[in-house]
C-alpha cells in the first residue's frame, strides 16, 4: 500500500497548540484523512503522482472538495478523481453509516415531540456541528412520507383476527394544546403474526369516526375476517355493524377484566384478577366454568 504522508509541519502544530485544542485535533484529522485518500488513489492507480510505470491502470483527474462534519468541527477533504475509473474509498461508507445514525436520532427526537429548534441545539451540543432548522424540517418531511406510505399501504392476504382500540394524547394545533383520539388496528394473519394495519387521528371517538376508520381499512384490502375484538364503545359497535356486519365481535379480555375488577372492592380485586386469568387460560369451556 502507498505510504501515508501527514502534511502538517512543526510550526503549524505549535501555532495550533497555542490556540484551541479541538482545532489541533481537527487539523490533524483533516490532514490524516486527506493522506488516506491520496494513498487509496495511488493504490488504485498502481502508481505515484507523475510516475511512469507499466503497472499504472489510470491517471488522476484533479479532485473535488467534500465537507465532513465531525465532533471536533468541519473538515475539508480533497477527494481524488480518476480519468477513466471512479475513485473508490471506504472512508465515506463509515461516514454514511454515522450520518444515517444521526438522521435516525433526529427522527426519533421529532417523533417524541422535540421542536426543530431544540433538535438543532441538541445535535450541535452532542456532535459539535450545527444542523439548520431547515435540515431538521427536511428530516421531518422524509419521516412524514414514510409514515404516510406505511399508513396507506395495500393490505394483502387475509387477516382472520382484527383488534381495534383508541387512545387519547395531547397535540399542539394552531398554538393550542388539545386532546385527540388515535385509532389503531392490529391484524393477525393466517400464519399467526400480529402487525399494525393502520392508524388515524380524530377529534374524538364517535360512530362516524369509527365508521370512517374501518371503511378505510376495508378500502385498502382488509379481507378474511373471522372475528373483531375491541372494547364495547358504542361508536365501535356502530362502525362494525356498518362496515363488517357479518363478522362476529368479541369484547376485549383486558377491558372486560378491568370493568369487572373496577366494580369490586379493592380488597378483592387482586384475587378476582387471578381467577379471571385462570378462567380465560382454560383449554375448554367446561374447565372455565368450574
From TrEMBL:
Alphabetized UniProt keyword annotations: DNA recombination, DNA-binding, Transposable element, Transposition
Coiled-coil portions: none
GO biological process terms on file: DNA transposition
Lineage: superkingdom: Bacteria
GO MF, one annotated term: transposase activity
Keyword Disulfide bond (UniProt): no
Homology family: Belongs to the transposase mutator family.
Biological role: Required for the transposition of the insertion element.
Name of the protein in question: Mutator family transposase
Organism: Candidatus Blautia stercoripullorum
